[in-house]
Design brief:
Blueprint (H helix, E strand, L loop, with lengths): L14 E2 L6 E5 L27 H16 L25 E4 L9 E6 L6 E2 L14 E3 L4 E2 L13 E3 L1 E2 L19 E4 L4 E4 L4 E5 L15 E3 L1 E3 L6 E3 L11 E3 L4 E4 L14 E3 L4 E5 L12 E3 L4 E4 L13 E3 L4 E6 L1 H4 L10 E3 L4 E5 L1 H9 L2 E2 L14 H8 L16 H5 L17 H4 L4
Parallel strand pairs: 4-6, 5-7, 6-14, 14-16, 15-17, 16-18, 17-19, 18-20, 19-21, 20-22, 21-23, 22-24, 23-25, 24-26
Antiparallel strand pairs: 1-2, 2-12, 3-4, 8-13, 9-12, 10-11
Subcellular location: Secreted
Protein name: Leucine-rich repeat-containing N-terminal plant-type domain-containing protein
Keywords: Repeat, Secreted, Signal
């Protein structure tokens, strides 16, 4: 199912672009099945370079065809539409979306890939995602893609977008026109309504009235890699920091190894990171605390160890911080707990299932208020802690992670203080966060 607006080349059930305005609306892709899928594999047709509008689309075609040949299972028959030269058509190449990069020659190219929920099986994403150089969004939760995380450093193109979390919602009865309302889309060709669900946030695109282009105040460059619920294995790329990601969600996979120290280079772009339920190991890195723009940091249910670095006191924008289900130890830093006060926006601090031994007064207050969860640790005097023998056995093991330093130099932007105004610091629904909203697809 495709949603068209003024220009059929700029369409997506994920990006419903209102080109006549400066604001576009994002809705989660609808689960519309191909009611009468055409068996395109039976058509003998090999497009030639001259059949494509430009060289970028021809190269993208070759990349898509190579990836298609590696797919071993396609229960919804989506790859049957991946044939021919019309990559930007209304009914062809389902899951691929075209746009014109800001700047440059304005030629159409593939800028979005949304394969969420198709249950595709392929041994790897290497040679696919990393070979689409203008890609701004890749969303492929609930598939079975193996191999390593694809290389991201070469993906230079970025949409200009900003995210707000409280757009108006509509019901299916509110649909009119050709499918431009938030929360719903309409299949104009089939006359069939399809309800989209669960990921609702507004995006501002760098387009001025009249289509002249330009920048919108407050807009940030963003990329999203959303790969929850797959079979991705191996380590996170050591050069992850070169990707300029804004949203990284790779929960419920089989990733191993440490969190790369290069993640510090994302301190001016990364807004949410979801590494939940993998097999990541090594010391909880100091560099993770440099992500002063991040509202969500979730590395729960891994095998990370060490004390919480003092750099975590720099997380002035974090609202949801989950370090639970690891092998962390030492004191829960009071400076971190103070981020739930005037120094930050912290609404939930989740630390159960570790081996912490003490909390300070600010943390004790958060426990009482239900903001901090420290169940199943080793903290004397608190309820619901590990058995003393279990704690003693863990703490008798050699520790190789560096001790937390008493002070740390925060990034300049964080030091200036992105402090929430009174009344703004409150727990939000998980579905209002991009990465959490994609977690339960």
């Amino acid at each position: 199912m495709r949603c068209a607006c003024m220009d059929n080349h700029l369409k997506s059930p994920f990006f419903v672009l209102l080109l006549c305005c400066t604001v576009a609306t994002v809705a989660y892709p609808a689960r519309c099945e191909l009611s009468h899928p055409t068996n395109y594999h039976s058509i003998s047709y090999n497009p030639q370079p001259q059949d494509f509008p430009n060289e970028q689309l021809y190269r993208a075609y070759l990349v898509i065809q190579r990836f298609k040949s590696t797919i071993t299972s396609d229960p919804k028959n989506v790859t049957a539409t991946w044939t021919g030269h019309d990559l930007c058509g209304e009914t062809t190449y389902i899951g691929f979306y075209c746009g014109s990069p800001t700047g440059g020659d304005k030629k159409l190219t593939v800028t979005g890939v949304i394969l969420n929920g198709y249950s595709l099986h392929a041994p790897t994403l290497q040679g696919f995602v990393d070979q689409l150089p203008d890609l701004a969004l890749f969303h492929a939760a609930s598939n079975n893609f193996g191999g390593d995380i694809p290389r991201l450093a070469g993906l230079e193109y970025m949409y200009r977008l900003s995210v707000s979390t409280d757009p108006p919602m509509y019901t299916v009865d509110d649909i009119s026109g050709t499918g431009t309302t938030l929360g719903t889309t309409i299949d104009a060709t089939a006359g069939k309504k399809c309800v989209t669900a669960h990921l609702h946030f507004a995006i501002s695109i760098g387009i001025q009235p009249g289509g002249k282009g330009g920048n919108i105040p407050g807009v940030t460059d963003s990329k999203a890699l959303l790969l929850n619920h797959n079979n991705i294995s191996g380590p996170l790329p050591s050069n992850l920091g070169l990707s300029k990601l804004s949203y990284l969600a790779v929960a419920n996979n089989r990733l191993t190894g440490p969190i790369p120290t290069s993640i510090e280079q994302l301190q001016d772009s990364l807004l949410e990171v979801l590494l939940l339920n993998n097999q990541l190991s090594g010391c909880l890195p100091h560099e993770l605390g440099m992500l002063h723009k991040a509202s969500v940091i979730n590395v729960g249910m891994n095998q990370l160890t060490g004390p919480i670095p003092s750099s975590f006191s720099c997380l002035s924008s974090v609202e949801q911080l989950n370090l639970g289900g690891n092998r962390l130890y030492g004191q829960v830093p009071d400076a971190l707990c103070k981020l739930a006060g005037p120094a930050g926006r912290l609404a939930n601090l989740t630390l159960p299932g570790n081996y912490f031994t003490s909390v300070g007064p600010a943390c004790a207050a958060l426990i009482k208020d239900g903001v901090l969860d420290v169940k199943n640790n080793c903290i004397p005097g608190l309820a619901n802690q590990r058995h003393p023998a279990e704690c003693a056995a863990f703490h008798s093991q050699p520790k190789t992670c560096p001790a937390a330093t008493p002070q740390v130099a925060c990034p300049a932007a964080a030091a200036k203080g992105a402090v929430a105004a009174p009344g703004e610091r409150k727990a939000r629904d998980y579905s209002s966060y991009v990465t959490y909203a994609t977690l339960h697809e």
